[in-house]
Amino acid sequence: MARLEAIETELRRARNRLAKAEITPLPTPVMDSLHNSVRFLNAQQARLEQTLHDHIDRHPRRQQDRQLLASIPAVGPKTAWRMRAALDMAVVVATQHNPAIQCLYQRLVARGKSKMSALRAALAFAPQLPWRAQTSNPLSATIRLKTLDR
Fold this sequence. Notes:
Layout: H1 2-23, H2 28-57, H3 60-70, H4 77-97, H5 99-110, H6 115-125, H7 128-134, H8 141-148
Helix pairs in contact: 1-2, 3-4, 4-5, 5-6, 5-8
């Protein structure tokens, strides 16, 4: 994800340089170089996006998370990817500070699950929190936690 964002930033810069060069004419080799840079970065962006899509398509749970996050109004695919990546990192902190995730994590560890297994369960639960916060989902976090606890 970080590499894709870096490519997108470079692509914006290259397009801005090209737009500026079209206003202030530059020698042909320089213009060719700018066009080549934009083509190369477009190809890299497409390749990385395809790799990311393929990765998500191979993991049904990640597909569900992406669809769930993208169902939030004003959240598109890129924002859903970023939210998922942020949730991956934040779930470790959430086991200490989020009551719903902390409860799930502690119950699983108390039942003899490994900490990594409990963390994975919390990670599976985390993407649902923003969706639940913006909908009137009748299922409470407690009910969902009990189903994950099995």
